[in-house]
């Protein structure tokens, strides 16, 4: 198992090897870029994605992230020949290193302050479904097919946080159905179930995701980061503890200059221009 080259800052200057990366107008766009194979993941792309998300957390120029796939598909999961085949030959130590690495990618996505918007079209299977699930917001298409198909290859549905995160998105019963059967969740059904925030066409899904990310990137980014942090932290809190934690979080946001900017703009009947501080 090899690893990607270390990610350097700023992200705008990093030459990605295993995915496509661009940073423009406060938004980093990460594109899984093996369209001839429906954008499967490899050992190297797993690690590079993890490194990019970890680096993004330290890059003040990046305020939101778009995650997409090239060629009309999002991601077909782990590459059958480059990942699944080698895993069969590994012992327990190597297998544990791999599963910890894949889980580390989801941890990096959740730990970063930037909201992540997934643009999902076509095949979104296995680890690809996990990447969409781990994003903060998801825009799909009617042709999207989301499949948590781990059981179809003899594995449990508890992969990369699926049993923790998916029920919180769509409910316990619906998550259980997808994780036990591995069946595909279509775009329209996915929107009804709450997996997708909304749908777009295949021609516009990336544009819509980028537009939403840009809107968030030009909003109060300190406050957005706090929202993301509290959404994660409050899973394990009582309502009373959450209310107390939110009192502290909101008080911190009230100390920001963006809060003052919003007040001054309101008083002047203008639209606030947020700077993220």
Task: Describe the fold and architecture.
- The chain folds into 2 domains: 207 residues, 2-enoyl-CoA Hydratase, Chain A, domain 1; 47 residues.
- A hairpin with a 2-residue loop joins β1 and β2.
- The chain is of the alpha/beta class and 277 residues long.
- α5 crosses α6.
- The chain is 47% helix and 13% strand.
- The chain contains 11 helices and 9 strands.
What is the count of structural domains?
2
Number of strands: 9
Q: Mean of residue pLDDT?
A: 95
**DSSP helix count?**
11
Question: What percentage of amino acids are in beta strands?
Answer: 5-15%
Tell me, what is the CATH class of the largest domain?
A: Alpha Beta
Structural class call reads: alpha/beta
Query: How many angstroms separate the termini?
Result: 41 Å
Helix content: 40-55%
Q: Strand arrangement, largest sheet?
A: 1-2-3-4-6-9
Low-confidence stretches: none
* Largest beta-sheet characterization: 6 strands, mixed
CATH fold description of the largest domain: 2-enoyl-CoA Hydratase, Chain A, domain 1
CATH architecture group name of the largest domain? Alpha-Beta Complex
The shape is globular
Q: SSE order in H/E notation?
A: EEHEHHEEHEEHHEHEHHHH
Name the CATH superfamily classification of the largest domain: 2-enoyl-CoA Hydratase, Chain A, domain 1
Q: Indicate the radius of gyration in whole angstroms.
A: 19 Å
What is the oligomer described by this structure? Answer: single chain
